[in-house]
UniProtKB/TrEMBL annotation:
Protein name in UniProt: General secretion pathway protein F
GO cellular component terms listed in the entry, alphabetical order: plasma membrane
Domain Type II secretion system protein GspF: 68-190, 270-392
Native source species: Hyphomonas jannaschiana VP2
Membrane topology term: Multi-pass membrane protein
Lineage: Bacteria, Pseudomonadati, Pseudomonadota, Alphaproteobacteria, Hyphomonadales
Length: 402
């Protein structure tokens, strides 16, 4: 079947658009008429065009989570993969999601595995989803694994939304404080300097420093912004290099506070995906491959490769986990207990629960500390600027009185 993009009117006269699968344009029009739609236009969706739309990142994280949940429900109900994809491509989903699903479905109809076909829509199905799906196909429990994956993605999305909501106030406070500092440096300080120039008196050191910074901001502000933009672009390009990304990930893990939180959330994701796959019948090596990309950190990806190599050689899973030095000691101890009790997936799940709770608690504490720190820091900067303005005035008053 081919994919066709259509524009039609419903019974209320509202304009509808979307994508539909059909053998031909005529069949597509017939199907739309059966849906009580008046067809205005039907055009085939070229495969390259569909890919380019998907690759522009128009599918949000929320839409991706809902899509995976929808697929898990359909697969658990007993539908074949092709039928489940066809149902996911319905009009209730955004056009970008419909195009992604149609692209995947077309490849599945031609005989491709679902996990391989998902590579045609990387924004809708990132590496983690593809790896878990591949493990589910190999274990023969695709529906169960997709349901666990959907639950994991939902929990991750909810946690990320909580953190974003908590960051709104500190971010807004920082922007307002920064705007105040820029306004003082660009507008207030230069006007006061004009008044100081009327007096032939030596200005205090702090005042001279602030005036120099003010002149620099006014004269080179645009250049500084362009330089920062260029450095940001160059940094983003460099981070695409594996060596640079690996160095950055290692450096982040060594940072105080932030590094600990990064390690906690990466280990929790690794443990959750490994437990999900292992409990669904995947082997240890298959579970490691699926969990490899879950942490979104090259240090943990390298650790997964190291553990897989040790396991192939017949080594202990917990010993290899400890030898990497990447995972929290608590997680290593729980996995050791799981090996002794022959319940590694269960202990991995408990470790993931504990680490998730630890991350939430730590994030709340960091954000609670960040707000007063921002206030004190920005208040100190504004206070120094005001002091630099007041010192010459006090000096002039002293000279006038003497």
């Amino acid at each position: 079947m081919a994919a066709f993009e259509y524009v039609a009117l419903d019974n209320d006269g509202k304009r509808r658009s979307g994508v539909i699968s059909a053998d031909s344009a005529r069949s597509a029009r017939k199907e739309l008429r059966l849906r009580e739609l008046m067809v205005l236009n039907v055009n085939p969706v070229a495969e390259k065009q569909a890919k380019s739309v998907i690759l522009r990142g128009r599918i949000s994280e929320k839409q991706r989570v809902l899509l995976v949940r929808q697929m898990s429900v359909l697969l658990k109900s007993g539908l074949a993969v092709e039928q489940a994809l066809g149902a996911c491509a319905g009009n209730e989903n955004p056009v970008a999601v419909q195009k992604a699903v149609h692209t995947v479905r077309a490849d599945v109809v031609e005989g491709a595995r679902l996990s391989d076909a998902m590579a045609l829509a990387p924004d809708a199905f990132p590496p983690l989803v593809r790896a878990v799906t591949s493990a589910g196909e190999m274990s023969g429990k695709l529906g169960d694994i997709m349901e666990s994956l959907a639950t994991y993605l939902e929990r991750t999305y909810q946690l990320r939304q909580k953190v974003r909501a908590a960051l709104i106030y500190p971010a807004l406070l920082s922007v307002m404080a920064l705007g105040m500092v820029v306004a003082l440096m660009v507008v207030v300080v230069p006007r006061l300097v004009e008044q100081f120039d009327l007096f032939d008196a030596k200005l205090p050191l702090l005042t001279r420093i602030v005036i120099g910074l003010s002149n620099g901001v006014r004269e080179y502000g645009l250049f500084i912004l362009l330089l920062l933009a260029a450095l940001s672009f160059l940094g983003a390009r460099l981070l695409r290099q594996p060596a640079m990304r690996r160095s950055l990930d290692r450096a982040v893990l060594k940072l105080p506070l932030i590094g600990q939180q990064t390690r906690t959330v990466a280990a929790a994701r690794f443990a959750r995906v490994f437990a999900t796959l292992s409990a669904s019948g995947a082997t240890a090596l298959e579970s490691l491959e699926g969990a490899k990309g879950a942490a979104n950190n090259t240090v943990f990806a390298d650790a997964a490769d190291f553990i897989a190599e040790r396991v192939r050689e017949g080594g202990s899973f917990s010993a290899a986990l400890s030898a990497t030095g990447a995972f929290p000691p608590m997680m290593v101890h729980m996995v050791t207990s799981g090996e002794a009790g022959r319940d590694v997936p269960g202990m991995m799940n408990r470790a993931a629960d504990f680490l998730d709770t630890e991350f939430e608690t730590g994030s709340a504490a960091l954000l609670a500390v960040a707000e007063p720190l921002i206030i004190v820091l920005m208040g100190g900067i504004v206070g120094l600027i005001v002091l630099s303005i007041m010192l010459p005035i006090l000096q002039l008053n002293t000279l006038a009185m003497s």
